[in-house]
Amino acid sequence: MSANGLWSKRKAHKARRMERAATWIRDRRIATGDIVAALEALLEPGDRVALEGNNQKQADFLSRALARVDPARVHALHLLISSISRPEHLTLFEEGIARKVDFAFAGPQSLRVAQLLEDGKLEIGAIYTYIELYARMFVDLTPHIALVCAAQADASGNLYTGPNTEDTPTIVEATAFRQGIVIAQVNEIVDALPRVDIPSSWVDLVVVADRPFAVEPLFTRDPRHIHELQVLTAMMVIRGIYERHGVTSLNHGIGFDTAAIELLLPTYGERLGLRGKICRNWALNPHPTLIPAIESGWVESVHCFGSEVGMEDYVRARPDVFFTGADGSLRSNRVLCQLAGQYGVDLFVGSTLQLDADANSSTVTLGRLAGFGGAPNMGHDPRGRRHSTPAWLELATASGPLVRGHKLVVQLVETFHKGGEPAIVESLDAIEVGKKSGMPIAPVMIYGDDVSHVVTEEGIAYLFKAEGAEERRAALAAIAGATPIGLRADPARTATLRARGVVAFPEDLGVARLEASRSLLAARNIEDLVAWSGGLYKPPPRFKSW
Amino acid sequence: MSANGLWSKRKAHKARRMERAATWIRDRRIATGDIVAALEALLEPGDRVALEGNNQKQADFLSRALARVDPARVHALHLLISSISRPEHLTLFEEGIARKVDFAFAGPQSLRVAQLLEDGKLEIGAIYTYIELYARMFVDLTPHIALVCAAQADASGNLYTGPNTEDTPTIVEATAFRQGIVIAQVNEIVDALPRVDIPSSWVDLVVVADRPFAVEPLFTRDPRHIHELQVLTAMMVIRGIYERHGVTSLNHGIGFDTAAIELLLPTYGERLGLRGKICRNWALNPHPTLIPAIESGWVESVHCFGSEVGMEDYVRARPDVFFTGADGSLRSNRVLCQLAGQYGVDLFVGSTLQLDADANSSTVTLGRLAGFGGAPNMGHDPRGRRHSTPAWLELATASGPLVRGHKLVVQLVETFHKGGEPAIVESLDAIEVGKKSGMPIAPVMIYGDDVSHVVTEEGIAYLFKAEGAEERRAALAAIAGATPIGLRADPARTATLRARGVVAFPEDLGVARLEASRSLLAARNIEDLVAWSGGLYKPPPRFKSW
Q1: Does residue B78 contact residue B108 with C-beta atoms inside 8 Å?
Q2: What's a Gene Ontology MF term here (chains A, B) (predicted)?
Q3: N or C: which end of chain A has fewer CB within 10 A?
Q4: Paired residues of A25 in beta bridges
């Protein structure tokens, strides 16, 4: 049918690629040792390649193989990758195998990204929050090839991801249904999968990896490193925000500040009689520091973006709390959890490295192109939201017939970094970084006009209650301590703001500074967390000190 | 293990339900005639039930069965339903089987919803945009039971949805992984599925329906009904918005206004030399009125929320354009397409029934509780967006180091309805409806401060260019014709706004009013669309006039 041929160029193209690689394929399988040759046959210069370079699990066998293809045959690839986290991701650019990249996060590799950009070896399509990047995979950035990662496959190519389902179904869907080629690395092939996370109808090729896929315990925070100012801040958040607004559904960013909050719920929160009244439903990875709150009956549900190394058995033993499959293990899903975190919960709280006088914040610092991860998606007021909850309505300060609520977007920041550098600054480093890197807009993580509350060790600025931009700045300055911004605060003005409830110091919230001690933490080290879990939590060796 | 029992109450509860229904279950299957008895055994009073009650396909066998259960046994259910579209959905409330509902749209049943609410027989949890409702299914509204719909199942319970995948995977995921029970009605059981859309690991029970599931051609607009003012408006949108801002990725709402735009691309758009420059990548259902643009080579890709009755063969024959499976048929996915429409495209354009002086709009009118559908999600500026595109950056009017772009949110409205009622009004009916129904906030569909452009038959108001709220109102008044709002326009002020490009009349855009004739439409009736498709489009009988 010629008419059909005219409209199925993609199918024909896929068939040609598969034909070229036929030598290396038997029963939809590529032998481990043949992967480089197979990739050379399947890929073409300029291809858009979605590499599972995830926030957590890594298709590292495939990324290492890709870094070994002959750049004369395969070059100028356009990489779509959530998280640039492994050295070989950037080797691809050094070798010319890849040329352009669209990504969301580049934590550990952010220095090298900036360097390669300066050297003209890497071109940035755009930097995203996670789900924007996936969104564009269904619009104008459909992958030609997806290199993904699963725990197991069966003979027909069904995949079991285990607890780290994360982004795999989304990337595979974007590729498979637009005549792209889906290649999955698996740790092993088994006769029967514990459950099917991705049907074989969506998978073209399976290859057994040389070793199990890499995954890092990114969400584990050792309570040993929580210091007393963080305990104080956590107490203020619990009293001044969670209790005050009746926050039942929420997301916590990663960090010691939010870990402190999690560890205060069963102690400080319990004493305040808040169990069942706040913090019931979570969009969150299985943070080990949430174990004491779960064990104390605080937590009704946790939906997860991904999993966390060492938490597998614990999660499996708590199916009332976590989303788990018929096989018993966690089902995570980054897109759906980001959606839950955007539209389904009332509060986002995260820490930042820099905040300006208008509460704009960024974790980008000079010489690093770190990206955004999930924070911009959860740390903004979702204007498409139409349902009301009590906490959301509480933030409706304007009146009039078209009043609506506002998400609680809370930024935590200590006024000074350890080295004595102020964290509340005149101008974000992000602006300079954006200019130097030729970015069309500055890489701001969370915009000040979305932020409802800023919390420092000095107090809380209820920015949503401030009238006008100038008063917002005054409220922020009032809790900015001895930073240049803080020194601008006028004590008389601050007193008025406190009287009006636009600013609160610990004493205004009934939080006793002297009480802010590490002894309030429900767990003071990893060993305590293991004990709370009844031995179900199995921390990775690096976190063990006993 | 007693410790385990303490934390797996949901699993135990599910097992008890399944045990109660054991008589009616063989090999995960319920016989067609046993469904009412099985539902009576499986359900419990107060259960949260997600009923697929979709925007398009309907699990109508299951909803009819649910309406027949004994209210003495099953009552006070909490219904989670995207779209209240079938009479029996409300019979559930009349009978007391259901009591509370969370929903997104209630088009055809909106009168009855309002009536039942007034009678105290129905309680509204909240009204949502689609993906908010799904988001909460992963937070605090996890379903106990999901009643879903597929085309086929195989013996082990894998499901094939066919082109109307829509919401099924999302609802099933929320239910299956939180120890809920997933019951799927299918048209038939087959030996081998064309493809697997939902793995059997996620499905508990399958029942063959008494007849194929119901689905309505909601997105079909017969070009016969497009009138010349709509052609004029469409010409203005193409010149004054799509060409002007270089809009390559977009979503169109349903309606004759947007159908007119689709039908002008291959004629008017072609003459302007815009093919390849605008309207390449779409987040859209397979609108029949898009066929001429596709056939003329305008469209690179279309990702779909759902399918459209009659478009199956056409879509199957155009795999370069649509997302299709290895079996050849469409793969739709409402969550992912809403995500694409929110974060992945530059423009949303939709028609509204009422617009106020500040460009707030709603399709809610007195006595009807229609809900929102997908418009609020796509018709707002997504503040979590961090990537730039030329069109998005064009709307950055402010300056300064933290400038960012803005989504193009375009509202189309004719100044008067057919009966002579003004469509641009002092106060939205939605405000009155909200008050009367005791809703916490007025049911506004799109908020004025998100709207970048308003287009009437008089011209375009480039609201994003207006300086301050007062000037926005003046710009809108300038194109509001003879409505009370329009009569307020000061001609001298309008002249200034036109000179500054804040308002444009057709002549300012080089659009000749006299040219705005139906003869510009690439198809003037359904038969033309069929001809464009080479006979592949098979319109439902009601649309046939030949």
Answers
A1: no
A2: transferase activity
A3: C
A4: A30
> Is A331 in contact with B158 (Cβ distance < 8 A)?
no
Residue B216 has pLDDT above 60, yes or no: yes
| Closest residue on chain A to B373 (Cα) | A386
| CA pair distance B238, B257, nearest whole angstrom | 12
CATH topology for A347-504?
Answer: Glutaconate Coenzyme A-transferase (3.40.1080)
For residue B125, give both structure tokens: 């949890």
- pLDDT given at position B2: 43
Q: What is the CA angle B517-B518-B523, rounded to 5?
A: 145
Residue corresponding to tokens 């056409």: B314
Which of A10, A160, A339 is the mutation pick for testing B, counting most B CBs within 10 A? Answer: A339
Domain B348-456+459-504: give its CATH architecture: 3-Layer(aba) Sandwich (3.40)
Q: What is the CATH number of domain B14-208?
A: 3.40.1080.10
Q: What is the pLDDT of residues B394-403, one digit of tens each?
A: 999 777 889 9
Identify all chain B residues contacting A281, using CB atoms and an 8 Å cutoff: 139-140
CATH topology of domain A28-208: Glutaconate Coenzyme A-transferase (3.40.1080)
User: Distance from B7 to chain A by nearest Cα, in Å?
Assistant: 5
CB A39 within 8 A of CB A26: no
Question: What pLDDT shows up at residue B36?
Answer: 98
Residue B505 amino acid letter: F
Please tell me the distance in Å from A325's CA to the nearest CA on chain B.
5
In 3D space, the residue among B201, B200, B195 whose CA is nearest the CA of residue B162 turns out to be B195
Cβ atoms of A218 and A42 closer than 8 Å: no
pLDDT band at residue A2 under the 50/70/90 scheme: very low
CA distance B414 to B351: 9
What average pLDDT score do residues A61-76 get? 98
Give the tokens for residue A159.
């995949």
Torsion of CA A321, A323, A324, A330, to 10 degrees: -100
A1, pLDDT greater than 50: no
**Of A27-31, A111-115, A151-155, B198-202, which range is least confident?**
A111-115
Residue B477's H or E segment, with its range, is: helix B468-478
Pairing between β-strand B77-83 and β-strand B48-51 as defined by DSSP bridges: parallel
Residue A342 has pLDDT above 80, yes or no: yes
Q: Work out the minimum CA distance from A283 to partner chain B, whole angstroms.
A: 7
Name the band, by pLDDT with cuts 50, 70 and 90, for residue A405.
Answer: very high
pLDDT tens for B483-530 read 999 999 999 999 999 999 999 999 999 999 999 999 999 999 999 999
Question: Domains of chain A: which residue ranges?
Answer: 28-208, 217-345+513-535, 347-504
Taking residues B238-256, what's their average pLDDT?
A: 97
Mark residue A27 as left, alpha or beta (left: phi above 0; alpha: psi -120 to 50; beta: remaining): left
CB contact under 8 A, B320 and A381: no
Cα A546-B6-B8 angle, rounded to 5 deg? 100
Average pLDDT, chain B: 95
- Nearest to residue A295, comparing CAs of A314, A311, A312? A314
Query: What b/e string do you get for B403-416 counting C-beta neighbours within 10 Å, with b at 16 or more?
Result: ebbbbbbbbbbbbb
Q: Does B399 touch chain A (CB under 8 A)?
A: no
Is B443 in contact with A386 (Cβ distance < 8 A)? yes
- Report ipTM for this prediction: 0.97
Choose among A337, A380, A447: nearest Cβ to B138.
A337
A200 touches chain B (CB under 8 A): yes
Beta strands in A346-401 (DSSP E): 347-351, 354-356, 361-362
Are A124 and A99 a contacting pair, CB within 8 Å?
no
Burial of B321 (0-12, 13-18, 19+ CB in 10 A): buried
Looking at residue A260, its pLDDT comes to: 98
